[in-house]
Amino acid sequence: MRKTIGQLGALLGVLLLPHSVHAAPPFYDNWETFGLSHGLPSEKVFCIRATKDDVWAGTDHGLARFTDGRWRTYTTADGLAHLAVLSIAEDPETKDLWIGTMGGLNRFSAGRFDTFTQFNSGLANDIVYGVTFLRGEVWAATAAGLSRYNAAQHRWTLYDETNTPMHEVWCYSVTSSQKKVYVAVWGGGLLEYDVAQNKWKDYRDPDGEMEMDLFRDDGLLIDVVAGAACDSADRVWVASYFGLSVYDGRRWRTYMDHDSPLAGNFINFVATRAEVAWMATDNGLSASDRENWWTYRRDPETGTGVVDWTPANGPPERFTSQTIFPHNYLLGVSFQGDQIWVATEKGAARGTRGQVRRATTE
Description:
This protein has strands at 2-7, 30-34, 45-50, 55-59, 62-67, 70-74, 85-90, 97-101, 104-109, 112-116, 128-134, 137-142, 145-150, 155-159, 171-176, 180-185, 189-194, 199-203, 225-230, 236-240, 244-247, 252-255, 267-273, 276-281, 284-288, 293-298, 305-310, 317-321, 330-336, 339-344, 347-352, 357-361. With 362 residues, the chain is an all-beta fold.
């Protein structure tokens, strides 16, 4: 029988473990859930994006904005291109919001929505799975290729199999680092674009097998890629529905749930903060710096949280929390200061650092 054995102390950057010398894991203990009763238009939250002052949630029934403790919903009546919002990015300079929907790309600026579609702009397709911003340009991953828009010059550039190493045109997500753009291509691996050199490079699964990884750490795990993110050490974390791949510029490492602490192989989204990557899976939330792992899950029987910590040098430990996100199927992760926000099948949740309890069995 599991029980808690005392509080370990407040987590203000240092976890108080008298008998442990491991680095402090990123514990988030206090969780608050947001659903229909709190103002969300739907509990099916596809994506979440925290900015300095607001938190934006993309749902299947509109765009929700969390400001000063309250939610406000925007729909097609307000100018949103489509009720299903799949991705959100912020222009770091103008603070304009760019929103990918099932019916086009929106720019939200000064309280107004502008809509870009394949009929009134250079958008490759109206189904916009991913959006990112780099050096004054917005990049949109669509169901029929990648679009790049320079808003200042009103110039569009389209990328597909004719001018890139893109083997498929179904671009499932797009993200950027300081110098490069990464495109997850469904069935086509990962594309890398070096902005300064204006050069494309593709990463594919070397063995070409869809159902298995024949040779461990030989390259990209599989060509069916769901997303990617670059951390502060310039490592690229690649999410797929079969596991995780990490590339440090020299070699690849792959992780699956049967040979690592990864919460689940079905990874919907990956985000990075400093050198730690956060994976939103169908079976909980995992965080890793490649050596240490932390996994959060909701206990379906009690509704409480279970946090498994697997340090690089030491035995695994388990902790419990009284609160946790509302569902183990996660679709998005974002950060606002010391808080973490997650998108799930049953609403959004906000986690803050608090206190944890070590769990034991008896």
